[in-house]
Amino acid sequence: MLMLASKLKREDGLKGPRTSAAASDSTRRVSVRDKLLVKEVAELKANLPCTCKVHFPDPNKLHCFQLTVSPDEGYYQGGKFQFETEVPDVYNMVPPKVKCLTKIWHPNITETGEICLSLLREHSIDGTGWAPTRTLKDVEDFRNREEDYIKRYAR
């Protein structure tokens, strides 16, 4: 799955010894986003519950992926919900864009599939918005806290 990291290592080996730092920087520049995603995607896949699956349409583009959630309990039990995540170039200064591809009625999902969570906003009134210290795993953890809240109070 971490094809980008291995691809970068292979390219480095093929180029041989570097003649100058400026020349190597101009021929290949890896974004901060891609460096962070190699680590975060591995961590995300290792910690996903069995009811969730990650799919990368293009394994070389870690910044675009789909998450399929199949709840095994609660109101949405038996359903299969797909979410599309796109991580912008300036990640992690801005949050990833998450969209629900499955038509669903949920108070935090609009008719067009936009997700309305303070965690996915750059600036939030309640102070729980996106911060550069957050990761993709925080988005998953927020979903788990929301499910706990629904189980406890939405009866």
UniProtKB/TrEMBL annotation:
Any one GO molecular-function label of the UniProt entry: NEDD8 conjugating enzyme activity
Keywords (A to Z) from UniProt: ATP-binding, Nucleotide-binding, Transferase, Ubl conjugation pathway
EC number assigned by the record: 2.3.2.34
A Pfam family annotated for this UniProt entry: UQ_con
All copies of domain UBC core, residue ranges: 32-155
Pathway: Protein modification; protein neddylation
Residues at the active site: C116
Catalytic activity of the protein: [E1 NEDD8-activating enzyme]-S-[NEDD8 protein]-yl-L-cysteine + [E2 NEDD8-conjugating enzyme]-L-cysteine = [E1 NEDD8-activating enzyme]-L-cysteine + [E2 NEDD8-conjugating enzyme]-S-[NEDD8-protein]-yl-L-cysteine
Entries under PROSITE patterns matching the protein: UBC_1, UBC_2
Highest rank taxon of the organism: Eukaryota
Record carries keyword Zinc: no
GO biological process: protein neddylation
Keyword Nucleus: no
SUBUNIT field: Interacts with UBA3 and RBX2. Interacts (N-terminally acetylated form) with (via DCUN1 domain) DCUN1D1, DCUN1D2, DCUN1D3, DCUN1D4 and DCUN1D5.
Record-stated family: Belongs to the ubiquitin-conjugating enzyme family.
Function, as annotated: Accepts the ubiquitin-like protein NEDD8 from the UBA3-NAE1 E1 complex and catalyzes its covalent attachment to other proteins. Together with the E3 ubiquitin ligase RNF7/RBX2, specifically neddylates cullin-5 (CUL5). Does not neddylate CUL1, CUL2, CUL3, CUL4A or CUL4B. Mediates neddylation of the CUL9-RBX1 complex.
Descriptive protein name: E2 NEDD8-conjugating enzyme
Protein's organism: Jaculus jaculus (Lesser Egyptian jerboa)
Lineage: Eukaryota, Metazoa, Chordata, Craniata, Vertebrata
